[in-house]
Amino acid sequence: MVSIVLSHPQMGENIGAAARAMQNFGLSDLRLVKPRDGWPNERAIIMSSGAFDHMPAPKIFDSLSDAIADLHYVFATTARPRDMVKDMYTPQEAIELAYTRQSSGQNIGIVFGAERTGMRNDEITQCQAIITVPTNPAFSSLNLGQSVLLIAYEWIKQSGIKKPASNMQTPATQDEIRTFMDRLFIDLDDRRFFRSPDLTPTMQRNIENIFTRAELTEQEVRTLHGILSALRGNKTQK
Amino acid sequence: MVSIVLSHPQMGENIGAAARAMQNFGLSDLRLVKPRDGWPNERAIIMSSGAFDHMPAPKIFDSLSDAIADLHYVFATTARPRDMVKDMYTPQEAIELAYTRQSSGQNIGIVFGAERTGMRNDEITQCQAIITVPTNPAFSSLNLGQSVLLIAYEWIKQSGIKKPASNMQTPATQDEIRTFMDRLFIDLDDRRFFRSPDLTPTMQRNIENIFTRAELTEQEVRTLHGILSALRGNKTQK
Predict the structure, then answer these.
(1) Nearest CA to B3 among B139, B114, B145, B148?
(2) What is the DSSP letter of A217?
């Protein structure tokens, strides 16, 4: 399954355009993180050209973490490269990868940021990889609906082509990774690792990037918990 | 050169959206056959997000024949197959062909029909081949601007404007990673993490895989050392 996640979308029109684009190209799972104007939204319905009648109701979430909790591999979309070490893909490359992964049972997410600002860095950090649509450097003005359209279009192209599933171990869900990160940060804070409150968010983001990039398996997250317990906990054994 | 030809476009908004899509993806030659509301068109300008400032003024024609007179190879676009014997292509196939032809000096055209009716049969007849965008048979509602967007997007993919490079910071050397792994294993051994000598090599290999897969940067290895020191070392702070 491929889910389209709109994080903090502002205009109902764009939510409707996204739904319409999704339905045009065979995608159905739409997730909304705190849509500015609430949900349901009259303008979204009008702009969708009836797409909502053909798909399940969008799921509404309070945070991006919640919206991607059950997904195994999540792409962030950005208009420009960010100062962040993550794999970057064109839409076609990303959808090829998504198709292979979903063929082996993984849930894939593609996240789009708010219209004005795009995805925030702390949102991108929660994703495994980045999609950037190639555009003319001298004139780049894709809106939210158009971006979803291009990604969904690549999906129908790809899903028409059979490919053998790859042999992969069960990847951790975002929720499992989140739980580990939270525990690590609490332990580090306890040990006074974060010396400057100003820098703490950046440091946490940098650390989180190491682990989201690694595409951890379920088993690996268990191992990391074991490592943390061993390093942190068993002082009495010394 | 690849020209986009809008035959009898009705809404100025769609002309503007087409221009914007073209500029986003590096196309500049826009030709209009009898735009319903005349030219120039205020709504087109507004919808273009400034695209017209970056490209030559659209050329206006009285007939499709005039509009495509200087072109060597012309594609018609249709939402559905017509009862007509012509080569049919997906957007990607068509643009691959267009790219090859224009590389050998040919002028290529891609024609889009009026919003309500699409291209008339007598218009399609004037073209060499047909492009149809694959869509969900149960829900197909691409508008004119979106159709131009998808074609233009295939153009930039094909014409190979450089995709943004990943933002790579200095990667860690294998030696730096090795040093960190050795230190981690010593600390874990010290904490009796490895309970069975038989399984120790396998466990170490699994742990090492997590970190080698992450393609760590120099800075990240330093961060990991800091984490290890914090978790392992400062017992006196507790």
Answers:
(1) B148
(2) B
Among chain A residues, the shortest Cα distance to B219 is held by A206
Q: How many CB pairs under 8 A join A and B?
A: 169
B52 in Cβ contact with B21 (< 8 Å): no
Rounded-to-5 percentages of helix, strand, coil across chain A? 45, 15, 40
Q: Which residue has the tokens 């014409």?
A: B159
- Cβ neighbours around B166 below 10 Å, total: 16
Whole-number Å distance between alpha carbons of A148 and B174: 39
**Would you give the distance in Å from CA A225 to the centre of its chain?**
23
| Alpha-carbon distance B65 to nearest alpha carbon in chain A (angstroms) | 30
Reading the block at residue B43, the tokens are: 């709504």
The interface pTM score, or ipTM, of the predicted complex is 0.75
Residues of A (86-115) whose Cβ lies below 8 Å from B: 86-88, 90, 92
Burial class of residue B65 in the structure, from the number of CB atoms within 10 Å of its CB (0-12 exposed, 13-18 middle, 19+ buried): exposed
Choose among A85, A146, A230: nearest Cβ to B193.
Answer: A230
Tokens matching residue B178: 């090795």
| Cα Rg, chain B, nearest whole Å | 29
pLDDT in tens, A193-234: 998 889 999 899 889 888 887 778 899 999 999 999 999 875
Across the interface, of A149, A224, A237, the residue whose CB is closest to B149 is A149
What is the rounded distance in angstroms from the CA atom of residue A148 to the CA atom of residue A98?
Answer: 15
